[in-house]
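If you are new to this repository, start here. Below is one unmodified record pulled from the training split, so you can see the exact layout before writing a loader.
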Amino acid sequence: MSDSAIMQLKQDVYDANMALVQSGLVVLTWGNASAVDHERGVVAIKPSGVAYDALMPENIVLVSLETGEPLPGETMRPSSDTPTHVHLYQQWPQIGGIAHTHSRYATSWAQACREIPCYGTTHADTFYGSVPLARPLTPEEIDAAYELNTGVLIVEHFRENDLDPSHVPGVILSFHAPFAWGKTAAKAVEHAIVLEEVARLALMTEQINAQAETTPQSILDKHFRRKHGENAYYGQPK
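And here is the target side for that same chain:
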């Protein structure tokens, strides 16, 4: 991997992490973003516990996609959530970036152990259905390999429920917080922002009407498919 490619990957991940802060999704060091170069087998991720105002692009840690271990020459410890990120990249080659936060509204739904219902078109534009809630990890899963099993659990939930991670670009974990992903680190951050906003809107919807109905399938289909898929027509041609 060339020096310029390495620096660009680190810069992209630095930019994504700073975007999480600028978007108000991260408090203190409660979050991280990463990106992967599938071709070269390298993941770039925020270093563990480093304050965002002290973070620099060169601090971003490179780890092996195969093992999750830091590459030779890396001196900083990667995020403690690295095993989760690496497992998702290994299992879902269609994604290129991941953002994990403890954003206020999405985390509230996670702590309440409720999926986030789709109450309208704002939600349907990005998530094809509810934002799913993954089950809690068992004590044995926590003790054996907490962060790795978090990734295993996410993939398991999507497979068992026949969910496409390209159509549902995020999840909330029971008693924990959200993860979001996309084709790039920047897109993962965008999806994390959307996830937080639809979490807030869902809460407000239920406060206004505790018996609110979820979005009819016809509206969900229309709004999601006009932005995604081969027949999408929203925005400008690429």
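Two things worth knowing about this chain: Residues 185-208 form the longest helix (24 residues). Residues 3-225 form a domain with the L-fuculose-1-phosphate Aldolase fold (CATH 3.40.225.10).
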